[in-house]
Write a structure and sequence with these properties.
The protein is α/β, with parallel strands linked by helices and about 290 residues long. The chain is built from eleven helices and twelve strands. Strands 3, 4, 5, 6, 7, 8, 9 and 12 form an eight-stranded mixed β-sheet that branches. The N and C termini lie far apart (about 55 Å).
Length: about 290
């Protein structure tokens, strides 16, 4: 049966749902976390034994610690800062790493923190959550004012919060992928900024603009790879709907008068991915940004 429990929307996805619903993301059977680990080793200031060594690391949108653990399995840092907007997620992560005295926790949205932080880091990373944070700003304020604010925050992150040789790694959703097309058609019913399916999301366009400007100024060198991920299998439409409503769409529509229209929209689009055995296979997609401060 479909689970339509309503959680505090300011808390993004409840930790219970996050653990229950998150599926692995991979490309040619290589998980996103492995690609991240490769970059960590590439930009490491030092290696001791079989682990890369860092002085100070910042994770934007740590969630329940999925990417955090991938970093810790690959490297060590004298200081590690984990940021998330959700107090419930941070509490879950705090309990997970309660025995570590080098981890600091920051409850904030990404943009606000980047505007105010006085720290410098060897590595800054964000897997899958960067666009969510940016879109929170763009949908809660004047669009043009929000764009200027986000652009300034990204620029400040690179110019002031990264040292020469520091790296950042960001996995950004591909809004034109099979998975995200379904989702952004629903988001567009609530937020008009997502109505144009012919272009990538505002967060990606902003990110591209700022990075290219910084590259032209000789401040960073960067590369971006467009990746079509392996298809994710859903055993039934019930499972697909549960994951899309309670995870990807963050339960935002569950108590809405439009919930019937949302379910119909998801069902209509997803039918093309239905397999003869009744399962659904839908491909996510992403852009992987890797940059080094010069």
């Amino acid at each position: 049966m479909l689970d339509t429990r309503i959680e505090d929307h300011s808390d993004y996805v409840a930790p219970y749902d996050y653990d229950r619903l998150l599926k692995p993301y991979s490309t040619r059977s290589v998980e996103d976390l492995e690609l991240f680990a490769e970059f960590v080793n590439e930009v490491s200031p030092a290696i001791e034994g079989n682990k890369s060594k860092f002085n100070k690391v910042l994770e934007l949108g740590c969630g329940h610690g999925r990417s955090t653990q991938a970093f810790m399995d690959t490297a060590e840092s004298q200081e590690m800062y984990l940021l998330d907007l959700s107090p419930k997620m941070l509490e879950r992560t705090r309990r997970r790493y309660a025995s570590l005295n080098n981890v600091r926790y920051i409850q904030s949205d990404t943009t606000t923190h980047l505007e105010a932080s006085d720290q410098q880091y060897d590595l800054i990373y964000s897997l899958w959550s960067f666009s969510h944070s940016v879109h929170q700003i763009l949908t809660s304020a004047d669009m043009e004012e929000g764009k200027l604010r986000v652009k300034a925050a990204i620029r400040r992150m690179i110019v002031e919060m990264m040292k020469p040789g520091s790296g950042f790694f960001i996995i950004h959703v591909d809004s034109k992928s099979e998975e995200q097309t379904i989702l952004f058609r629903q988001w567009a019913k609530l937020f008009p900024i997502f109505k144009d399916e012919g272009v990538q999301t505002p967060s990606k366009l902003i990110f591209d603009e700022v990075l290219e400007a910084l590259s032209q100024e000789g401040i960073i060198k960067y590369e971006v790879d467009h990746i079509e991920m392996d298809g994710q299998e859903y055993s039934s439409f019930e499972e697909l709907l549960d994951i899309f409503l309670n995870f990807h769409l963050e339960s935002q529509f569950n108590d809405s008068h439009d919930i019937g229209d949302i379910i119909d929209g998801i069902k209509a689009y997803s039918e093309q991915f239905k397999q003869p055995d009744g399962t659904y296979i839908i491909k996510p997609g992403c852009f992987i940004y890797k940059a080094v401060k010069l």
